[in-house]
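Exercise 7. Given the encoded structure of a 219-residue chain, write a plausible sequence.
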């Protein structure tokens, strides 16, 4: 039985108002999406900085970055001033050390897009370098990469294998909504969950869906 409340990250936050709404309902993290090859929720780095600046202590502010070079990620974080970086594409292992050295105190979360058994090996490898792993349903092999925000679930049996195989916290993303959130948690037992489209109507954060989500989680 889970002793602690599951952590909830609400992603694709597009305004200060959305950030405050998510936090009011119980989000322990918000996701701020920078330039991506595809997907929803992209906002300017200036707006990311503004939103991150009003978030109270204790709430994680995730900068979602599609950049793959350490220097570019470092420069972007310094502009945006978030306390967490979510790397949505693959990077070289030696880049993690540079991020650690240049951005002390900033948490590093690596996305693993779950596609098959090879995702377990990928997660084991990156777990040596990061503070947490986020499991999502993108596809890096497409001509225009999908790096998140697909609204699709993936094979939660693989996600459970990853949870059981690594020693860092796991956040589960991909197609989660108030109707399937309990099923997802029971199947995977993650540290936290991450939602974007599952709590939105016409692209906007929806208070009723947020209420339903946190009610399902017994918040």
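Solution.
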């Amino acid at each position: 039985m889970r002793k602690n409340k599951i952590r909830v990250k609400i992603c694709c936050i597009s305004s200060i108002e959305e950030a405050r709404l998510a936090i009011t309902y119980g989000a322990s993290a918000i996701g701020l999406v920078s330039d991506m090859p595809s997907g929803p929720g992209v906002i300017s780095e200036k707006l990311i900085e503004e939103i991150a600046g009003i978030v109270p202590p204790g709430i994680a502010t995730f900068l979602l970055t599609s950049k793959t070079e350490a220097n570019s990620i470092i420069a972007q974080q310094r502009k945006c001033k978030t306390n967490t970086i979510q790397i949505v594409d693959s990077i070289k292992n030696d880049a993690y050390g540079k991020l650690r050295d240049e951005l002390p105190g900033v948490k590093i979360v690596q996305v693993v897009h779950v596609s098959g058994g090879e995702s377990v090996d990928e997660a084991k490898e990156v777990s040596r370098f990061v503070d947490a792993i986020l499991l999502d349903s993108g596809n890096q092999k497409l001509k225009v990469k999908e790096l998140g925000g697909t609204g699709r679930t993936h094979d939660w049996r693989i996600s459970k294998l990853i949870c059981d195989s690594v020693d860092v916290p796991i956040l589960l993303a991909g197609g989660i909504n108030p109707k399937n959130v309990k099923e997802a948690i029971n199947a995977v037992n993650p540290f936290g969950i991450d939602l974007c489209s599952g709590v939105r109507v016409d692209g906007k954060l929806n208070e009723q869906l947020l209420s339903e989500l946190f009610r399902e989680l017994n918040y």
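Remark. Strands lie at 7-10, 29-33, 60-65, 84-87, 107-113, 132-136, 170-172, 192-195, 200-201, 204-205. Students should compare their own answers with the one above.
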